[in-house]
Amino acid sequence: MDVSTPKDRAALIQLLVDWSLCDDSQLGRDPTMQYEPDLGCWRIECPDDDASALDGSDSGDDRMKPYYFSSVICQADRLFGRHTRCFPATDVRPTEGVSEASPLMATAVVKDAWAFSVRDASNDDRDEVKSLKRIRATFESSSHDNIIYPRIVVGGRVKLKRGGRAVEDTTEAMYKGVCKRLLDIVAADSLFRAHRRIVTSPIGQPLRKAKSAKELILVVGDVMRCHSAIVAECKILHRDISDNNILIVRREGEPTRGLLIDFDCALDLSKERIGMRGKMTGTPPFMSINNLDESDVKRTSLDDWESLIYLLCLIGTRGVDKGTRRSSKELEKLPIRLWKSGDAKTILYSKCRCLSNSATFMEEIVSNFNSEDKDGDMLKKLAIYLYKTLFQNHYLGFEYHGTTKTTPNLHCLDVIAENIPTMFDPFSFDNPLESLRDTTLVDPFDMRAEKCDYISRQLLAITDMAWRRAKTILSTDQQ
């Protein structure tokens, strides 16, 4: 603002007036989250959408469950985005002050985020709470002893007290009655966000804490087994397989497990007509080519399997073993750097080229895996087998291969022409092969989407095989 001009002076006065009309929550203070100095920890109110008001007053008080935390797992340190924060917490109020000698024993994770939503919570298909509750209901009522999943405890939209009423904390409520100009901007459905809190268990560690390539494979095997079960039985597609959304779960006396989290981008496959095509969703370095291209090819579990390939390649290139990991400066010299530092178009072009055929994939990506990683060959083989099964599946025709559109019978006709030249007169205008040549371009991603179930079963079988091998080796090493 240039306060030397009448226009900006008026704008400054308007801003000061707007601030004077704000309540504490509109100025940035969250009344549902308070520090308790006597206990040395924070108290955070978590909504329970399954609870109902006992007195019918809609005050929302009895729908809020208190949790306590003293540390932060994930901090909202970016200007844009969902401003996700995660806290290891417990619903048991400490009886004495939290300290190093008497630490708070967390039993769950509280996730606090501003996610894209719709105004009517009951019709919000992007609601992570709904997805997690469906997953819990499905797996609790069936025999899935080998599946580890994020079990929701409570969750819902945060509500604040205003004028004696409980009001949902949303971008619209934030500016309503204060700043019409900003309210008009955030009123667009595409910009509407709701403040949600979700409590889940178990608690995990970041994927970078993997102790070896074998342990990483164990984690990935668990995650994709869970992912496949969620797709098949819950009809939910995750759509954001990335390093931040996979956790390592370690429990004393139990084998290491992998946990898939963050269903903010999840898609309800039972409602295919809604949002299935065209929109870029997820974390760019791990996005599928379809996703980056915003193509009209139907989104399927193959997009998530493709994201897993990128995850394995990025980790394999950097290195799993902490002592031998490559630095950012070293990675800048490799082709895979574009997946991390480029914009969407740059990442798209790089992935299309690097995954176009097996030779390029081996030369540009696999050959650059960190050779100093112990058992790194296991990770390399897993990445190769997954790539070949998805992009170069020898059980399917050439039209299912690669990353670019092609004519369906071009390869077959060329082979015939090269190997059986005596079948026809090459100088004849009535070449019988030309009449068979179909010039219609076929999208291999579209073709593979039609065979999604078949290819996904193969990919899961490969991951399970690697998981069993890694588990056997780890068990032998520990004896």
Automatic annotation (TrEMBL):
Q: Name one Pfam family in it.
A: Pkinase_fungal
Quote the SUPFAM superfamilies the UniProt record gives: Protein kinase-like (PK-like)
GO-annotated molecular function:
ATP binding; protein kinase activity
Q: Where is the Protein kinase domain?
A: 69-460
From what superkingdom does this record's organism come?
Eukaryota
Task: Tell me which InterPro entries the record gives.
Answer: Kinase-like_dom_sf (IPR011009), Pkinase_fungal (IPR040976), Prot_kinase_dom (IPR000719)
Cited PANTHER family? FUNK1 11, FUNK1 6
Its name, as the record gives it, is Protein kinase domain-containing protein
